[in-house]
């Protein structure tokens, strides 16, 4: 089966305000198959957001190439949605109008898009807030609205940057299960960034672990835990421990590097 996303030897360098070179990503290659859910895991600053921004066409790589459905990425595309790490809502639109936005762009009728928007607001626990404006919501509620908006749009490729990071455990678990159900129904391909090992093991078909300075792929793990996944199962907890050990090793090495370079 042809890959939906082909990331080939991609590098991205930034220059910080002190004029220092930051190798955010260095020679990353990754293929994502149709309908696959890949989680990116790694220490802060290892280039996860940068990689999503490159795939979304918001930035261009310094080296290498990114193909979506065999075509080079040349800018943002209507069939790809990025849920940002920071929620970004239209302040002048109500919650319902925010969530209905994507379908409005697709030309769906008002009645239909409001029905779909209400469905996703119910899923994210925001039904009673549909007439509210973003400034009237808490941070977690704004993030849930942004999430409902992305899901309601039903893009073919969904890029998610720590979308559940600001949520309480119960809501987070509910939305994780919901995301898996939505994927089953829509066959969406999902590239999902998280800091949570638990979240990655619960969601992913494959987990890609990145290291920082420079941002490289450390390890790729196909998750062998059968679905529906049980957090208490041996398979689950063993994989959790294995990944934790890898991440601790990466963080330790990166601290040693920082000490040696006097950062
Ligand atoms: N616009 C920019 N200018 C300069 N440096 C940048 C810029 N964007 C990112 N960086 C640097 O590139 C590296 C990767 O950043 P990125 O935001 O992709 O990391 P991340 O893995 O998403 O981190 P986090 O887990 O904290 O969100 C970091 O060292 C960051 O400081
Ligand atoms: Mg990030």
Brief summary:
This protein has 263 residues and is an alpha/beta fold.
Topology:
Layout: E1 5-15, E2 21-32, E3 37-41, H1 48-55, E4 63-68, E5 71-72, E6 80-83, H2 95-99, H3 101-105, H4 110-123, H5 139-153, E7 157-161, H6 169-186, E8 189-194, H7 197-203, E9 206-211, E10 216-222, H8 234-260
Parallel strand pairs: 3-8, 3-9, 6-7, 7-8
Antiparallel strand pairs: 1-2, 1-4, 4-5, 9-10
The protein binds adenosine-5'-triphosphate (ATP) and magnesium ion (MG).
The site of adenosine-5'-triphosphate (ATP) has 12 residues, from β2 and α1.
Indicate the CATH topology of the largest domain.
Rossmann fold
Helical proportion? 25-40%
Low-confidence stretches: none
How is the largest sheet built, in terms of strand order? 6-7-8-3-9-10
Q: What integer value in Å does the Rg equal?
A: 19 Å
CATH superfamily of the largest domain: P-loop containing nucleotide triphosphate hydrolases
Instruction: Give me the strand/helix succession.
Output: EEEHEEEHHHHEHEHEEH
- Catalogue the ligands: adenosine-5'-triphosphate, magnesium ion
Care to count the β-strands?
10
Structural class: alpha/beta
Q: Ends: how far apart? A: 45 Å
The average pLDDT score comes to 92
Distinct helical segment count: 8
CATH architecture of the largest domain: 3-Layer(aba) Sandwich
Number of domains: 2
- Which overall shape is indicated by the principal axes computed on the Cα atoms? globular
């Amino acid at each position: 089966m042809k890959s939906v996303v082909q990331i080939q030897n991609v590098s991205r360098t930034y220059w910080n305000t002190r004029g220092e070179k930051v190798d955010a990503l260095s020679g990353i290659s990754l293929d994502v198959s149709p309908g696959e859910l890949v989680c990116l895991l790694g220490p802060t600053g290892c280039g996860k957001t940068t990689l999503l921004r490159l795939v979304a066409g918001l930035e261009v790589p310094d080296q290498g190439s990114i193909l979506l459905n065999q075509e080079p990425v040349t800018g943002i595309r209507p069939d790809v949605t990025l849920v940002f790490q920071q929620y970004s809502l239209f302040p002048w639109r109500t919650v319902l109008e925010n969530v209905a936005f994507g379908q409005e762009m697709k030309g769906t009728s008002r009645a239909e898009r409001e029905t779909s928007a209400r469905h996703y607001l119910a899923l994210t626990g925001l039904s009673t807030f549909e007439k509210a404006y973003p400034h009237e919501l808490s941070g977690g509620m704004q993030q849930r609205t942004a999430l409902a908006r992305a899901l309601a749009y039903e893009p073919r490729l969904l890029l998610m940057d720590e979308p559940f990071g600001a949520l309480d455990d119960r809501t987070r678990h509910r939305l994780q299960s919901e995301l898996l159900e939505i994927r089953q129904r829509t066959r969406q391909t999902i590239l999902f960034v998280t800091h949570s090992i638990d979240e990655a093991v619960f969601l992913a078909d494959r987990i890609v672990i990145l290291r920082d300075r420079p941002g490289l792929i450390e390890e790729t793990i196909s998750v062998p835990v059968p679905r529906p996944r049980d957090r208490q199962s041996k398979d689950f907890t063993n994989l959790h421990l294995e990944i934790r050990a890898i991440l601790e090793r990466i963080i330790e090495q990166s601290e040693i590097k920082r000490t040696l370079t006097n950062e």
